Structures are given as C-alpha cells and as structure tokens.
Amino acid sequence: MAQQRGKPLPKFGEWDVNNPATAEGFTVIFNNARDEKKTRGKAVNAMSSASSKKTDIPPSPPTPKSKWLVDQALDKGVKVAVCSTSIEKAVSAVVSCLLGQERAEKIQIFAGDVVPHKKPDPAIYTLAANTLNAEPSSCVVVEDSAIGLAAAKAAGMTCIVTKSGYTADEDFLNADAVFDCIGDPPEERFDLAFCASLLERQYVS
Questions:
Q1: How far is CA 103 from the centre of its chain?
Q2: Is 66 contained in some domain?
C-alpha cells in the first residue's frame, strides 16, 4: 500500500467502532508458535497484540482480513492477547467490532494505561508475556511501524511487520519478516506455520 502523504494521523482515542479504517495501527503476537511446526497444530500458545497509530503505536489492526489468522491461533489453543498503548475501553470496542464478540471474549487485552511507558518501550509486551506465562523468545509479534518493531525486539520477541499506509517508508531492517499485508486465503502472506518457522530458525541459528 502506498504511503498516504499529507494524511493526518488520528488523535489519541479517535476510534470509530463503525469504521474499521480508523483502527489502523494494531498488532498481533503469537507465543510458542514453534510448537505448531512440531505438533502440526496440536498445541500452541499465542498472543495477539494491538496498537493504535494515534498514540504512536505500531502494527496491523485486527481487520476483517486477519480474522482467519486469529481463528487459526485460537483453534490450536494458542493464547491470543491484544497489546495497545491506547485506553482499554477504546481497544475493547475496536476489537469487538472488528473481530466479533465471540473472538473478543477469548482475547486478553493489555492497554497502555496499565504500563508506565508506551512503545517503543517494551513494557506492554513484557506485561503480556508475564501475565500469560509466556516466554518472550517464543512470541511472534505482528507490527506495522518502526516504533512497534522496536518495542517487540526490545521485549525479546520475534517480529513480523505488515506495512500500513502510514508506515510504508519506515525502516524495518530489524524485522524478522516484512509483508505488505496479512492477506486472506488463498492469498495470505503468512500463517501460523510461518510464525513457527521463524521461531524454529532462531533456535537453529
């Protein structure tokens, strides 16, 4: 997606739950995804994290195009959490709107107002990992900005970047993988098995 030059970033809390486009900036994380490769999908722990561009938060939002990836994780017993630097009420509303109430009830939300520092500080990711009893080295984060990437790497997590219109020209050199979007089957850019392969590679190298 080409960067939308001159388009102002949404301000803190300006999420219209009836307009998914205002939710750009969310993130997704998967924990222990490498187990997916070893067990062929039997047992996996995963975390999903979301952030909002409005508060200089990164990653791609839980848009309709990422529902299948969330379902894939939840179906395999992966822990899914949303990590955002915005307030919990706003994050919950957007997640419920974009992913549906049934999915939202299975996703734990970690909002930025419960940690002392926002991204690129890793505090929100560290809190999520500790709360879910997940090793940071077994987590895969899906971000969409350099700020989110920095936070994920500082937390010791693997990070996939899906570019957004606001961050297309940012430096993602430290990302473990970079895509233009998540995509929908049969044209998805990556899946849970790909996340597993990234974690597997980190232990081999």
A1: 15
A2: yes
Instruction: Tell whether 158 is covered by a domain.
Output: yes
The DSSP secondary-structure symbol of 174 reads T
Identify which of 37, 105, 23 has the alpha carbon closest to the alpha carbon of residue 66. 23
Q: Domain limits at 151?
A: 21-204
Q: Domain of 139: which CATH number?
A: 3.40.50.1000
Place of tokens 């969310």: 26
Strand partners, 162: 179
Please report whether residue 72 resides in a domain: yes
Measure CA of the first residue to CA of the last residue in the chain; give whole Å.
32
pLDDT in tens, 47-104: 444 333 333 333 344 545 579 999 999 999 999 888 888 888 899 999 999 899 999 9
Residue 160, both tokens: 């996939």
